[in-house]
Amino acid sequence: MTNIPNVKLGIVAVSRDCFPVQLSETRRKAVVKACKDKGIDISETLTTVENEKDVLKAIDELKAAKVNAMVVYLGNFGPEGPETMLAQKFSGPVMFAAAAEETEDNLIGGRGDAYCGMLNASYNLALRRLNPYIPEYPVGTPDEIAGMIAEFEDISRVILGLSRLKIFSFGPRPQDFLACNAPVKPLFDLGVEIMENSELDLFESYNKHSKDERIPGLIREMAGELESGNGYPGILQKLAQYELTLKDWMENNLGASEYAVFANKCWPAFQTQFGFVPCYVNSRLASIGIPVACETDIYGALSEYAITCATGIPATLLDINNTVPKDMYDKNKGLFEGYKLNDLFMGFHCGNTPKCCMKTAAMKYQLIMHRLLEPDKEPDITRGTLEGIIRPGDITLFRLQSTADCSLRSYVAEGEVIDVDPCSFGGIGVFAVKEMARFYRHVLIAKRYPHHAGVAFKHAGKVLYAAMKMLGIKDVAFNQPASIPYPDENPFK
C-alpha cells in the first residue's frame, strides 16, 4: 500500500502532583514493553506531564520523534487541565487510556485512582470541545492497554488519511445515478480536498499518453497478472495507456495533499470515446491503495479509502445488487447455516474488484453495456472488465455519505461472503449479513443511502465505527439484532 499514512505512535504518561510521579512512569514503561511484545512500534515520551510547562516539553519530544498519533496514559489520577491541554495542542489523533491497579498487596502507596481520573479527564475534554478516541473500556493492565493501542493505530490511519486526502473526479454524475449525490462542503469539513474535472480533461490527458514509452512494460505486467484469464489481450494497450494517465494525473495534481483517490464517470460516452471500459484499471489501482469509484461516486471513493486505511488491504465498491433465489438457498442450506434467505444478497459490479480479492478472475466484457452500445456484434468498446467470483470470507459493508442537505452519516455492517457460485456475470459474490432485510429497509432505504457499498475484506466494524465517531459523525448505523428495533420499525409487523 503506497497511498495510506504511516502511523507513528507515541505515548505520554500524565501524573497528578499529589500522586507519586514514579507510579505513572513505571506503568508507562510496562505499557511500552507490552506494545513491543505485541509487535507495536511506539515512541516513549520521557517527559511525564504534571503541569502546563510539561505539556510544552512533551509536545517538543513528540515532534522530535515525528509522532503523529498520541496516547495520553493516566498512570495515576492525572492532572485534568494539563492532560487535556496536551491533547488540544497535539496536531494528530489522540487516545486516552488509564491504568488498572495491579495487586491487592499495593493499594496504599501504589494505588493510582486512574479509574476515577478518566472521569475528570472526559469532563475537561468536553469543556475544550475535544473528541479523542476513548476505548469502550479504557482502563486496563499493560497488556490490555497495548491491545487498545493496536486498535487506535488503525483508527489513526483513517483519521490521518482523510485529513490529507484529495479526491479527483472526472465528469458529472449520470442522470440515472443522482443517488450518488456529492455535496462538497462536508468534504471540506472533514479536511478532504476535491478537484472536480471534465471528462474532456481526462480524454485530453489520455490522448497525450498514446506514445508513452512505459506502455509496453505495463502491458507485460498486466498480462502477467491476468495469466490464463487474459481473455482480450488486444485491449491491454488502451488499458495501460489509461492507467498511466490516472497515475500521472495524481502525481501532477496532488498539490498540498498527500494521498488521493478517484471518482470517475465510466459510461456510456466513456466507451464510445475511449474505446474500452476502465474496470480492470480501477481494480489494479485499488489493489495498491488508490480506489477509483465508478459512476463519479465521490463518497464511494471516500468510503473505499477509509476502508483501505482501516484495514491496510485493498477494498472494493459494489452494488447492493440482487436477491438470492430461493432454489439457490435451498440447494446450499448447509453453507447458509445460521442465515435466513433475506439475510442474503448479491454484491456486484462490472469488474472493478482487485484480483487478490477474488476467487476467480478473468478479463471479459461488460454485458449490460454491450447490450446497449454494440448489440449483435463481437465485444469491442465494452471490453475491459475483471470478472469472477468474489472470494469467500469475512467482510464489512461501509459507507460515509453526505445527505443532500450536507449532513454526514455513515453505516457499518459486518458479515461474510459465502462460498457459493452466484451463477451470474460481473465481479459478484453471495453476501450474508445478519438481519440484512431490516438493515436494508430501516438504514439503507429509510436513510436514503445510494446503491454503492464500500467492502472491506475483513471484519473492521470496530475500527470504522470508532473512526466515524472521532470524526464527529453522529449517525453511524449498523445492522441491529432482532431484539433491538429501529426507531421507525413497525412494531406490529
Give your account of this protein's structure.
- The chain is α/β, with parallel strands linked by helices and 493 residues long.
- The chain has 2 domains: 9-162, 3-Layer(aba) Sandwich (Rossmann fold), CATH 3.40.50.10940; 164-478, no CATH class.
- The chain contains 16 helices and 18 strands.
- α2 (52-64) packs parallel to α3 and α8 (215-226) packs across α9 (236-253).
- It starts with 8 loop residues before the first strand and ends in a 15-residue tail after the last strand.
- The model has no long low-confidence stretch (mean pLDDT 96).
Helicity level: 25-40%
DSSP helix count? Answer: 16
Q: Mean pLDDT, as a whole number?
A: 96
Report low-confidence residues grouped into runs of 5 or more.
none
Shape: globular
Number of strands: 18
Topology:
Elements lengths: L8 E6 L6 H17 L4 E3 L7 H13 L4 E6 L5 H10 L4 E6 L14 H14 L11 E2 L1 H22 L1 E6 L14 H6 L2 E5 L1 H10 L6 H12 L9 H18 L5 E6 L4 H6 L4 H9 L4 E2 L4 H14 L3 E8 L3 H6 L12 E6 L12 E4 L1 H7 L9 E7 L3 E10 L5 E11 L8 E6 L3 H10 L6 E5 L4 H10 L5 E3 L15
Parallel strand pairs: 1-2, 1-3, 3-4, 4-5, 6-7, 6-8, 8-9, 13-16, 15-18
Antiparallel strand pairs: 10-11, 10-17, 11-16, 12-13, 14-15, 14-17, 15-16
Helix pairs in contact: 1-5, 2-3, 3-4, 5-12, 5-16, 8-9, 9-11
In summary, what is this structure?
The chain has two domains: 9-162, Rossmann fold, CATH 3.40.50.10940; 164-478, no CATH class. By secondary structure, the protein is an alpha/beta fold.
